[in-house]
# Entry
Amino acid sequence: MSPFDPGAIASLQTHHCFGGTVGFYEHDSRVCGCPMRFSLYAPPQMQQGPRPVLYFLSGLTCTEENFMVKAGAQRFAAELGLCLVVPDTSPRHTGIPDEDTDWVYGSGAGFYLNATQDPWKRHYQMYSYVVEELPILLAQAFAVDLDRQGIMGHSMGGHGALVIGLRNGDRYRSISALAPICHPIASDWTRPAFERYLGDTVAAWKDYDATELLKRYVDPRPLLVDQGLSDPFLQDLMPQSLAQACAETGRSLTLRQHPDYDHSYYFIASLIEDHLRHHAQFLCPGSLDSP
Amino acid sequence: MSPFDPGAIASLQTHHCFGGTVGFYEHDSRVCGCPMRFSLYAPPQMQQGPRPVLYFLSGLTCTEENFMVKAGAQRFAAELGLCLVVPDTSPRHTGIPDEDTDWVYGSGAGFYLNATQDPWKRHYQMYSYVVEELPILLAQAFAVDLDRQGIMGHSMGGHGALVIGLRNGDRYRSISALAPICHPIASDWTRPAFERYLGDTVAAWKDYDATELLKRYVDPRPLLVDQGLSDPFLQDLMPQSLAQACAETGRSLTLRQHPDYDHSYYFIASLIEDHLRHHAQFLCPGSLDSP
# Structure
């Protein structure tokens, strides 16, 4: 796709899967100013008409591929008639000198926020990309119903799903997360990324911190969060901060803490069915056997 | 594990998954004369006592990891109480000069046979490794019931499952395959491996060709085989040869030919449930809701 052509989508590969199609796509992102990739699972029902869209935001180091390959979600997306969309986790190959230096910032670590600092702000606009640009692009090429969107994610992507979901009550009917980073501004692990992308003003960081945002946005959408208790990152994920913020603001939260599970896709695969059924309650209630 | 210590198993990593445990292991193989790796899924029921073992033999270029990561089989192994075992697809790092040169022979391409030719015969003994050494090793370390074994596989591993299953009616109660190589001695794609491992005597090749073996071994075990019709390797897989041999010998075969599916793990994941339920009929009939 050259020269730069926003609006055009190149199909990189497709695979038939559970009666639908897993596809990998690339397009020139106007918001990120570079090519971006995403994967999409079109359930069989999309041949009959527009289906709800459920976004999965992936964790650090992931691309648009990991979830489609490892989570086993297509089985349930096919059953429930949900279109799954997985964006890449950052812009890539932007020419920023230390873009690939560290796994907690730069490529693979976009943190689903809009960077305000040089050199990142030119390309690292993942918040606007996911919230604004990607849905419009999808609607141009696929039978998606943008009035029925849900969002979920894992780890850094769990943070992204919570932040994007909470800040956009008008856009996402349902939110869930697996082992999300719940309070990134309080963690030494995640703070370096926030400093690079957003500068040293803590007030700016709070726009991208689920625990802080829960105090600002009050609405009836319940949250489903799963957390493994053998997760090596547990101390930095801080689900207890999320639980406390939900308690203080009266937000409905189902926080399930599972012994023995770690941070891997084996954990995600074990619980993904529950997440798709959670979202289906709000996105396509008619497809569920029980309320 | 040094010095060479057959019988000892090193656990490389474990992950909790659907209430059981995915583990990756290494041991010094007496048969292959080098370290070998396998993965094992222990379903939750293994904590109560020995469970049937279902082997999955993987395709060209795979390791012991691909199936565990991509197929989503643990969901059903946990439900049915099946122990899943996935051996690596060949010896590795043996020092054979062109071991890593070509994807259709050498490392990642053991073809589940016992090589008789130099330099391969010293290490490439995958048939005896899978049939004889690995089960005994498993029984020493895990709660497995070797009286209840089944075998399945994909592509080169589908060939392996058919060959090993057919030749060992006393060891495997059930056999299935996904997109198996059904008649390798008739394919230009697979013949180079057979020539290197077994020399140029076609009679020796027939010991490892499912279509040929069906003429020799007659028993009541039914075969389940799935094949995608958009599989780019379809011409070399030759499911029609398998179908013809089964027809001629009165062997029960369910050959399901699926439009649109290709050769990938998206195909495997879409159909793996049916394979586990096929094997469970023979390995643990009490666990099935319907006969």
User: Anything to note?
Assistant: Chain A touches chain B at residues 15-19, 22, 69-70, 72, 74-75, 228, 230, 260-262, 264-267, 269-270 (CB under 8 Å).
